[in-house]
């Protein structure tokens, strides 16, 4: 089964993107790069740049799914607001093109690539370059971060599905256990109750 995944690392100064094509268990890098926004002073012009660039990428590569790094909630409210807007614009491009959207926490992404949720960005970039056999000449680590998001999502898609019957069976078992009332218990075990018809053992 073939899937094209667009990974995005949201940002208000630099927004990274990485596109992979997954065929079975193998992955191929289609494109990786970053949208440079630091020279644009107008915040709405930045959002327009994000929208137009991602729209061009989506129309060129027709990704099946979009995966974004979820914002890290810090103390700077203004920064979080700006980052949320950038992420929202990226999502709107996906929604407009009927692309399935997923979000992953930074720690989960690093863990899926390196086995360490606190790994440095440089370590993530080095492992991806070796894993996917591509030359990493990116100016910004935001680009390799975005590629990591796409790869993380690929790994999530590759996980075997948990049979639905298992959860249903557990629920039914727990329901049967909890359905027995105190009155039923007393009637079935009267010989164990002080003052019952039988003697306490």
Protein model, in words:
This protein is of the alpha/beta class and 201 residues long. The protein folds into 2 domains: 2-158, Ribonuclease H-like superfamily/Ribonuclease H (Nucleotidyltransferase, domain 5); 170-201, no CATH class. Helices cover 50% and strands 19% of the residues. It contains 7 helices and 5 strands. It has helices at residues 43-61, 77-96, 106-114, 121-132, 141-158, 164-178, 182-188; strands at 2-9, 14-23, 26-36, 65-69, 100-104. A 5-stranded mixed sheet has the order 3-2-1-4-5. Helix 1 (43-61) runs parallel beside helix 2 (77-96) and helix 4 (121-132) packs across helix 5. The N and C termini lie far apart (65 Å). Residues 165-179 and 193-201 have low confidence and may be disordered.
Main features:
19% strand; globular; 5-stranded mixed sheet; 201 residues; alpha/beta; 50% helix; disordered C terminus; Nucleotidyltransferase, domain 5; 5 strands; 2 domains
């Amino acid at each position: 089964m073939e899937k094209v995944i667009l990974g995005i690392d949201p940002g208000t100064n630099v927004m990274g993107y990485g596109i992979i094509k997954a065929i079975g268990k193998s992955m191929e890098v289609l494109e990786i790069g970053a949208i440079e926004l630091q020279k644009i002073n107008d915040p709405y012009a930045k959002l327009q740049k994000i929208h137009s660039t991602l729209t061009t990428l989506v129309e060129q590569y027709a990704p099946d799914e979009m995966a974004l790094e979820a914002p890290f909630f810090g103390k700077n409210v203004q920064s979080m607001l700006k980052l949320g807007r950038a992420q929202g614009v990226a999502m709107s491009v996906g929604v407009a093109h009927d692309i399935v959207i997923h979000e992953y926490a930074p720690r989960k992404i690093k863990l899926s690539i390196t086995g360490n949720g606190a790994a440095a960005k440089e370590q993530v970039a080095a492992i991806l370059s070796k894993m996917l056999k591509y030359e990493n000449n990116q100016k910004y680590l935001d680009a390799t971060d975005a590629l990591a998001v796409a790869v993380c999502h690929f790994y999530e898609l590759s996980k075997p599905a948990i049979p639905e019957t298992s959860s249903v069976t557990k629920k039914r078992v727990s329901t049967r256990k909890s359905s027995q009332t105190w009155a039923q218990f007393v009637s079935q075990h009267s010989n164990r109750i002080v003052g019952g018809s039988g003697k306490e053992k």
